[in-house]
Design a protein that fits this description.
A hairpin with a 7-residue loop joins strand 16 and strand 17. It is built from eleven helices and 18 strands. By secondary structure, it is of the alpha+beta class. The two termini are about 15 Å apart.
Length: about 400
């Protein structure tokens, strides 16, 4: 018996010293190669005539551009700047750093904002939800600055966070100087960058449409002078006229002219139409609607949540567990242009033959590969559903002894 145990210990030491690699996939016996993926890209219709100098139409789930005109031209964004302000507010709510019923005190600086405002007074207190309404419906500069100061301590710090978030989203041609969109030197963005931040807001926080689609509302000013009701009217006229509209934000100044990020949802597809520097307000709404109509008429989205699949366990080397079980990281979305049928999309589950511990829930154990007919159109990661620690010597000994006694009993 002592010789057997000594032999097993020696065997474990030898095995521990041999490096093991993550090996191949069960379908082809090699690790999947995605370099030959052939993307099926939406066609950009350059024949669409727009008077606005810059525009983008983007599909929300994939981020694909369906139409663009001077998408990277740096222009003044006016109050569509507030899309980023709203995004940071919602991130603070998500992180539980903020609650809708929290009180926000208006500073003298916030109350001094000109332009579009709801005439908040210094030291007036409103809750977060009221501030969101004022920003979303009435494009209130004073409410935007009050929220910026409440979240970050100062508007300057909040703007720094806005620029940091812009870089994170890939908004390479954007720089914010304030949180409300008043014209300022070095404050600029592009139609494409506005579409990126709009996409982030509506896909991560679709509940924002509960406010951005309100046509009229009121809130109550409560100050030392007493209480008074103030009316809010939405600046986005598409709210009343466009089927499926979900928002999002208008903006206009004498320099920026007329801007709009219009979002709409039909048949489980989100579209984002951005218009910058339109010559007049009628043009921005008409051309945004034209872009949305084009998108809904010519495209559809295939979405697969992968709830129907069964993922086989994958062998684990050097782990406290012998097998890793999988979970699908994300939904898969694919944009189908006219003539492409979702029923022609198929998928293959490709699992690695073996993975090496330690594993976290961020580690891949395989992929789901999607094809349109014979063209690869994308993939979704399969991740380990549970963390698996690397086995120590006693873990290996325990497993080896278990196998030994099972074999000889």
């Amino acid at each position: 018996m002592k010789k057997t145990i000594a032999f097993l210990l020696l065997l474990i030491l030898i095995l521990q010293s041999i490096p093991l690699m993550t090996i191949g996939a069960t379908v082809k016996g090699t690790k999947p190669d995605f370099e030959d993926v052939i993307p099926v890209i939406a066609a950009i219709d350059t024949k669409m005539n727009l008077n606005s100098p810059s525009a983008v139409l983007m599909e929300g789930s994939t981020g694909q551009i369906l139409f663009e005109k001077n998408k990277d031209e740096k222009l003044k964004p006016a109050s569509i700047t507030k899309i980023m302000t709203l995004l940071l507010i919602y991130e603070a709510l998500e992180a539980d750093q903020l609650r809708l019923m929290d009180d926000v005190t208006v500073s003298e600086h916030a109350a001094s904002m000109g332009g579009s405002q709801v005439y908040l007074e210094p030291y007036e207190v409103q809750n977060v939800e009221t501030m969101i309404k004022c920003i979303s419906i009435a494009s209130a500069n004073d409410a935007s600055v009050a929220m910026a100061e409440h979240i970050a301590g100062s508007e300057e710090e909040f703007v720094a966070r806005m620029n940091e978030k812009a870089k994170e989203l890939g908004m390479m041609n954007t720089n914010f100087v304030n949180c409300c969109g008043l014209d300022a030197d070095n404050h600029y963005s592009t139609a494409y960058d506005v579409a990126l931040m709009s996409r982030e807001l509506i896909t991560r926080f679709p509940e924002v449409s509960n406010y951005t689609t309100i046509w009229m509302d009121t809130f109550v000013h409560t100050t030392k002078k007493g209480r008074s009701e103030f009316g809010l009217t939405n600046t986005n006229k598409l709210i009343k006229s466009y089927k499926g509209i979900t928002g999002l934000k208008t903006g206009s100044t004498s320099i920026a002219k007329y801007c709009l990020s219009a979002t709409a949802r039909r048949n489980n597809m989100d579209l984002i139409a951005v218009i910058l520097a339109a010559p007049d307000t009628k043009t921005r709404f008409a051309e945004a609607a034209k872009l949305l109509n084009y998108g809904f008429a010519n495209y559809s989205v295939f979405v697969d949540d992968n709830k129907d699949i069964v993922i086989e366990p994958v062998a684990v080397a050097k782990g406290v567990s012998e097998y890793a079980y999988g979970q699908v990281k994300d939904e898969f979305s694919y944009l189908c242009s006219s003539g492409r049928k979702p029923e022609n999309i198929r998928k293959e589950i490709v699992l690695y033959d073996k993975v090496v511990a330690p594993l976290t829930t961020e580690d891949k154990i395989g992929d789901i590969i999607y094809y349109y007919e014979n063209d690869k159109i994308g993939s979704v990661d399969i991740l380990a559903s549970e963390a698996i620690k690397k086995a120590g010597y006693f873990d290996c000994l325990k497993k080896s002894l278990k196998k030994y006694f099972v074999a000889y009993n």
